[in-house]
Amino acid sequence: MDIYEALYTTRMMRRLRPDPIPLDTQARILDAAVRAPNGANTQRWHFVAVDDPELIREFGQLFRQARALEYEKFSTGTGPMVAPAPGSDPAAHAETMRWIKGSGNYLADHFEEVPLLLFVFAIDDLGGANIYPAIWSILLAARAEGVGGVMTLVLRNFEDRVNELLGVPVEEGWKMSAMLTLGYPRGKWGVAANRRPVQEVSSRNHWDSPFGVEVPQPLWPPHGEMTSDLAATG
């Protein structure tokens, strides 16, 4: 798969089929993940793959409880992403959040059908600098295999219980960074269209200075010569 196709079409997939992911596919995904850059190549990461139906059922119950806590915060205006980003359309933001909630509800209601959970742990993570490249490599490698997924942090609300269920040696300093649900998607891959263009979210040398070029439409797939899709600005 072309690297730009993977970058442009990898998106969070919450509607997943129950079909199992073969072990050799899982191995290729994780083998790509451990090639990710990390501070001083210390590789302070550990991945726990969960495909035991009983464990998935336990985590499904925790996931639904954790989402209820998060949406309680959201409804009171204290949760993450409550307000739109500066300069963005409030109506579009509200519609996006409505869609995400519906998609998340599907995942919560069908959690027991997810064929694979992947828990990611790290030590001295420095705000995610060491582990998030590996997580993104997981999602890109999964895309190349036709596997979709979503990263979620909500189970941090029940971190002690997660550690207990998985037997995490917390005394060594391991902390959960995220959980990924992985499976073959029911939906289709595609270029994300609802993105603010480069020139609206980028600048050069100073916050208020123009980036120097406008990108009126996605540059992948290419429309003839790539440069023809760019327009220089002052």
Structural summary, described in words:
With 234 residues, this protein is of the alpha+beta class. It has a single domain (3-185), classed as NADH Oxidase, CATH 3.40.109. It has helices at 3-9, 23-33, 53-75, 90-109, 132-144, 159-166, 198-201, and strands spanning 45-50, 116-122, 148-152, 175-183, 213-214, 231-232. The longest helix has 23 residues, at 53-75. It is globular. The model has no long low-confidence stretch (mean pLDDT 90). It holds the Pfam family Nitroreductase. Residues 10-184 form the Nitroreductase domain. Keywords: Flavoprotein, FMN, Oxidoreductase.
What descriptors fit this protein?
alpha+beta; NADH Oxidase; 37% helix; 13% strand; globular; Nitroreductase; Nitroreductase-like; Nitroreductase/BluB; oxidoreductase
Query: What would CATH call the homologous superfamily?
Result: NADH Oxidase
Order of helices and strands: HHEHHEHEHEHEE
**Given this structure, which CATH class is correct?**
Alpha Beta
Secondary-structure arrangement, i.e. CATH architecture: 3-Layer(aba) Sandwich
CATH topology-level fold name: NADH Oxidase
| Count of β-strands | 6
| Alpha-carbon Rg, integer | 20 Å
| Widest beta sheet: strand line-up | 1-2-4-3
Helix content: 25-40%
The description of the largest β-sheet is:
4 strands, antiparallel
Shape: globular
Domain Nitroreductase: 10-184
Organism: Mycobacterium fragae
Pfam family, one: Nitroreductase
Protein name: Nitroreductase
